[in-house]
Recover the amino acids of this structure.
């Protein structure tokens, strides 16, 4: 079974799809599996074919639609049994041109296109167009992979696809690559309390909610270590008890070291799908706050992380206060359990085994 894996992001980004692609690539290299990688973000890595996206890069969000043609030009040069598309809409043109000799597997990584509702905004137009192409690829693909039962149900209901071809796969992380963990869980209330926040799109990531929550704890002083965006709006610096420290993009080693040297991790994203960054934070043994959104509430328990009662700034503020007032032993116990849960359920090895089963089942099905 010859497999081609196509991904737009890989080595230069730190989002869930990119992390999964890199983890799969590292595992494939270690195990010498028969899978070839194609990406515009190859960084000249051995075993990754560079895809030129010169044309699509001239456009804005429509570039994601146009680059499907650029990926098709590369994909058609070799014969594979399965084409796997890490972003479903990038595969639309190859799937459209497919004469039935190649099977296609597509990933739906979030609910942003599925949940888009009419409003007079650029964002609505973007996701409405994406939804059309995502629906097309889901209907024409042989298999669909998503990262939660909630998303699976939405795909079935909104895109009218057969339930049997939608698979849930929790994207694991490459735990051996995480060679540092937090070892000091003490928090000194009379000093600045540091919170790590990792999200390039800090608006979507809920930075405003986090700032609002911290501002309610006005007897304490906080520093938010923001990793991802190159800069943020100056309005976020108008809080008396909050210092904003924007570090931009960091490589994985720097990222992990910055996180473990903070007191807690929090990205209160209301639209979080699987939330692989949360999984990485848990693996680093740092006290991690996760909002009880529709998807996250079905993935995590407060045995090993801190989950507010509601997805708003007041509840988040209460939960942050709970972390601070807890003993170091409680923080340590929950954080260490979080790492064990990740090792058990979310390692790239576990994910790869399930991923291979999905591919094998797709391959074995009659065209």
């Amino acid at each position: 079974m010859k497999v081609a894996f196509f991904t737009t992001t890989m080595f230069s980004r730190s989002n869930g799809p990119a992390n999964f692609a890199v983890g799969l690539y590292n595992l494939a290299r270690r195990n010498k599996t028969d899978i070839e990688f194609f990406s515009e973000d190859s960084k000249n890595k051995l075993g990754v074919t560079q895809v030129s996206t010169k044309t699509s890069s001239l456009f804005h969000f429509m570039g994601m639609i146009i680059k499907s043609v650029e990926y098709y030009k590369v994909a058609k040069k070799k014969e594979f049994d399965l084409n796997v598309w890490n972003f479903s809409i990038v595969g639309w043109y190859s799937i459209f041109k497919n004469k039935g000799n190649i099977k296609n597997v597509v990933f739906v990584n979030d609910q942003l296109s599925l949940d888009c509702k009419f409003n007079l905004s650029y964002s609505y137009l973007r996701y409405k167009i994406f939804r059309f192409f995502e629906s097309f690829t889901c209907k024409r693909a042989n298999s669909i992979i998503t990262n939660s039962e909630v998303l699976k149900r939405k795909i079935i209901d909104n895109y009218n696809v057969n339930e049997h071809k939608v698979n849930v796969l929790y994207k694991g992380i490459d735990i051996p690559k995480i060679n540092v963990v937090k070892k000091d869980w003490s928090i000194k209330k009379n000093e600045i309390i540091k919170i790590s926040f990792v999200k390039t799109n800090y608006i979507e990531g809920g930075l405003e909610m986090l700032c609002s929550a911290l501002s309610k704890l006005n007897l304490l002083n906080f520093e938010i270590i923001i990793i991802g965006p190159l800069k943020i709006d100056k309005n976020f610096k108008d809080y008396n008890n909050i210092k904003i420290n924007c570090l931009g993009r960091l490589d994985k080693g720097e990222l992990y070291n910055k996180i473990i040297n903070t007191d807690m991790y929090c990205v209160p994203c209301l639209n979080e799908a699987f939330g692989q960054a949360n999984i990485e934070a848990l693996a680093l043994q740092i006290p991690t706050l996760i909002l009880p959104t529709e998807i996250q509430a079905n993935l995590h328990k407060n045995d090993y992380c801190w989950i507010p009662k509601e997805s708003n700034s007041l509840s988040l503020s209460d939960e942050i206060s709970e972390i601070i007032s807890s003993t170091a032993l409680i923080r340590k116990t929950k954080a260490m359990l979080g790492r064990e849960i990740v090792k058990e359920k979310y390692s790239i090895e576990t994910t790869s085994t399930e991923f291979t089963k999905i591919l094998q089942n797709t391959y074995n099905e009659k065209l």
Remarks:
- The radius of gyration is 21 Å.
- Residues 135 and 350 are 29 Å apart (CA to CA).
- The chain has a mean pLDDT of 93.
- Residues 3-174+347-364 form a domain with the Rossmann fold fold (CATH 3.40.50.2000).
